[in-house]
Amino acid sequence: MSIVAIGLNHRSAPLELLERMALSVDDAVKLSGEVANGASISETVVLATCNRTEVYVYAERFHDAFEEVRHALGVVSGVDPMDFDGHLYVHYADEAVDHAFQVAAGLDSAVLGEHEILGQVRAAWDRARVGGTTGSALDLLFTHVLIGGKRVRSETEIGRRTASISQAAVELIEAQGVRIDGARVLMVGAGEVGAGVMAALARRDECELTLVNRTQANAALLADDLGARVGSFDALADELRSADIVVTATAAPGAVITPELAVEAGLGQHPTLLLDLAVPRDVDPVVADLDGVDLLVLGDLQAFASRNLEARHAAAAEARTVLSTQIDKYVAAGTAREVAPLIAALHQSAESIRVGELERLSNRLGALDDRQREAVEALTVGIVKKMLHEPTVRLRDASGSRQGDRLAQALRELFDLS
């Protein structure tokens, strides 16, 4: 049995494909169920964000597991596997473990070291536990993955120097020469990304914030915390008409701001910056053809965030050192988890032999009185314990290392332990 990570992200696939493969929370839960039904897979966790769709599995047979995940991805996303085959990456065993740690620490993100991913990893694991698709193997992995992500943020500069996606979005707006101070800003979508951008705007500048969301109650809660006004989704055209800056980050399956809506709203009558952070995109690309409209998408944000990263890369080197120590702890814990039943099986086998030999010689021991029988019992128990003490200690001390793996395998073969 091994851990396998299969997926595609902003590095392996174009934005258009990521949009087609984007999964809602319900889709991610459905995918977990589909994958968990695979014949060779016993555990699964699905991580779905705007930049990645990944499936982590604990599987008996690698190739069978890959085919089962590939098929399930096609079923749930509605995308023909032939369209995404060339963009899938696969990590196996140690590589899969290392990849999971890198992801949670923000080292594999579009914005190096971004903060949001750690919460997204936690949410993915929580969904798997609630859905019953994870178990002891992936639970152990994600326990240490989250610890590693937290340590990176508290023990290295990457947690202090690196902008989150929401912070980078605000910086990108400013880089366009758009003045946020005093601007009328419309946020469409009250999800995690939208909330982050709203909070970043509220911290940075004095602007008029308006939030529009399909679920009015969610918008009201967020707006109240940030001192923003809540607009009506049904009156989106009116809200667009008065906005200087529009940031969209909904979970809609298709365009929210269509060319027809843009015309109705009179977009282009005064300069308007649209920043579309959704996957799939919220703004129809045709809207960018309107005079006075400047449209930026997630790819623009990724390119912007990738500039001038020397300090962040230095911090990333520190982060990898921290992760290395946490990975060692994970490996040690995993090996100890495997070693404990092996040690128990060894002692049980020896005890079975001891008891069997006493029973075989019971006729010869029949003349012994109770005190003598107790002495024989204590003698044989002591011999077994002394014989097994050193192998037990050495195996425990070496757990989590290659030597420990070799010793464990030798014990299984020498004593015929399953």
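(ticket continues) Second input and output from the same batch:
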Amino acid sequence: MSTGGAPPLISVVSPIYLAEDLIDDLTDQVKASVSEITEDFEIVLVDDGSPDDSWRRIEKQCRSDYRVKGVQLSRNFGQHHALTAGLATATGDYVVVMDCDLQDHPRYIPQLYEEITGGYDLVLTRKRARAHGGARNWTGGVYSWIFNVLITDRRLRDHKGIGNYSILSRRVVDSFLSMNDRHRHYLGLIRWMGFNAGVIEIDHHERPKGSTSYTFRRLLREAMVGITSETERLLQLSVVGGFVFVGLAAVLAVTLVVLWATVGFLRGWTSLMVVNLLGIGLVLSSLGVAGIYLGNIFEQTKQRPLYLIREELNTRPSATETDDE
């Protein structure tokens, strides 16, 4: 194949974490799927500081095929930062983004490509049903509802079943990389950009090997990042809650005075303690919300890089790639 240094038609980007048993299957299935479109492609695997042997498996794939490109981050920066590193490395005219767990099957890549070449800037995928456990599906639904209630911009609202599996045009990739949000959420940024987007429906499968790295605590943190990075509504609600409690306190004070003057009022600590506890709880929760936003500002003002790269493989043109056959 002659490339002459030209960028490939399609890049496939996948962040890798605790997936050593899936990397070989992932690359094989991606190759088989993309080969239905073109042989001019690349696969970018980003090791997000995985503590297992994921990088060794990536090295093996890079040695066997120069179209597989490996990026090893210096530590675990998080899925969305690893995804950003992959998009920065990808050079294709179109870039497919997918998770490494094979729950979203690579066989949909030709359909994604066909859809985006029909006039879209990007194409997202909607899962017909999620193959997670009942508890995770329920919590995911609750998060989606809370997120949509808090988000005022309709373009940014979460649509049930939409996931990271998608294909982007080069214009969308470059626009995504131009944003330097420290607390970044892939789908949130994609929606905010407002490019013309298509959607296809896909089946969601159970993870074939291993278990997910997303614990409840990590999912909760991701949910908080997703909400606080896209809306300041929580701050507004804390202010509204403060005024509501001030109003309730005023009404309660008048009521107690009237009862004392008319029928008398039994002295005691119950009502006082309830009001105090409610007031303290409101103050602490409001301070907590403000603290989260201040923490986000603090992290953003540091101006540190979004990620650091320890090692790269096949990311620069080699003699094999540039020689004409």
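Agent notes: Confidence is low (pLDDT under 50) at residues 319-325. The chain has two domains: 10-230+306-318, 233-301. Closing as not reproducible unless the customer responds.
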